[in-house]
Write a structure and sequence with these properties.
Layout: E1 6-10, H1 17-26, E2 31-35, E3 45-48, H2 57-61, E4 64-70, H3 79-91, E5 96-100, H4 113-120, E6 124-130, H5 143-149, E7 151-154, E8 160-161, H6 166-178, E9 185-189, E10 195-196, H7 197-208, E11 213-216, H8 219-228, H9 233-247, H10 257-262, H11 269-275
Parallel strand pairs: 1-2, 1-4, 2-3, 4-5, 5-6, 6-9, 7-11
Antiparallel strand pairs: 8-10
Helix pairs in contact: 1-6, 3-4, 7-11, 8-9
């Protein structure tokens, strides 16, 4: 059994990290949030941390046995940043790593493949591979186009996904961090149903009280849009290719992982949309 040493949360002010930290604190765990910016969680310890700054690794990892790991966002090959961090974590005695990955990326695939292998090298580990976050509809990816145009724009065609709430990802991550028996597996995480973007748009429109439609564009058009929005070309190409794969059924699945690991049914998009309708008001 692990003692209540500090649990390090990288990306601790982000979508999943902040939720995980709050749940751990509520359960009496000592939490250290590693971030470039200090947040507002009063019972957490904050430490400056940047995966691109190796001098920040050792202070963040002192007295840490368990780590929630989020790779840098928008970086096609994060291994030059993450692998040295994991090496230092192992040197300092970290025992368990729970890593956020993605269901759309194979275990040995691009972006996360090398990180998966490194995480497997710890005595205790779990890799969380969620489908697309429901929060994408209220954050930068889709919120503005829904608000201003009533559109959700993708290259996913009629492909279906098991959209998942970040709260359900966080609940699963907490179990992977604190369960006495390590999970030592890849968790494919989905919501309770598969939907295409047209169906998702209809649900969101019903909650918002106005029409919302899905506009399907080519993967090359999507890549150009992402580059214009500031994503590096290689990462924009990667993201557009994921949409293309979705159009061919790559994400058409529902798993029971959230219920099996947490004991709770995952939230539906209908429930999520009802709770977040204010985000899509003009």
């Amino acid at each position: 059994m692990m003692s209540h040493d500090q649990i390090l949360i990288t990306g601790g002010t982000g979508t999943t990290g902040s939720r995980i930290a709050q749940r751990l604190i509520e359960q009496g765990y000592s939490v250290r949030i590693a971030s470039r910016n200090k947040g507002k969680m009063s019972k957490a310890e904050y430490v400056y941390f940047d995966l691109k700054d190796e001098s920040s690794f050792t202070p963040a990892l002192e007295r840490v046995k368990r780590i929630y790991l989020v790779a840098p966002v928008g970086v096609f090959d994060p291994s030059p940043y993450v692998l040295p961090f994991l090496k230092e974590a192992k040197r300092l005695g970290a025992e368990r790593v729970v890593m956020l990955s993605a269901s759309a990326v194979p275990e040995d695939g691009p972006v996360f493949g090398a990180l998966h292998r490194a995480v497997h090298g710890f005595p205790e580990w779990a890799v969380l591979r969620p489908s697309y976050f429901m929060q994408n509809f209220i954050n930068v990816q889709h919120r503005m186009s829904i608000q201003t145009e009533g559109h959700i724009i993708t290259a996913a065609g009629e492909g279906k996904l098991g959209f998942i709430d970040a709260d359900d990802i966080a609940e699963t991550a907490v179990r992977a961090l604190i369960d006495i028996v390590p999970h030592n597996t890849h968790h494919i995480l989905t919501g309770p149903e598969v939907l295409n973007y047209a169906e998702a748009a209809e649900i969101i429109g019903a909650a918002a009280g106005r029409p919302v439609t899905h506009v399907s564009i080519s993967s090359s058009e999507l890549k150009n849009r992402m580059e214009t929005a500031g994503l590096p070309a290689d990462y924009a190409r990667f993201m557009a290719e994921l949409d293309e794969a979705i159009s061919h059924g790559a994400e058409h699945r529902v798993t029971d992982t959230v219920k099996r690991v947490t004991g709770k049914e995952p939230r539906s998009l209908t429930e999520f949309a009802a709770a977040h309708a204010a985000y899509w008001k003009r």
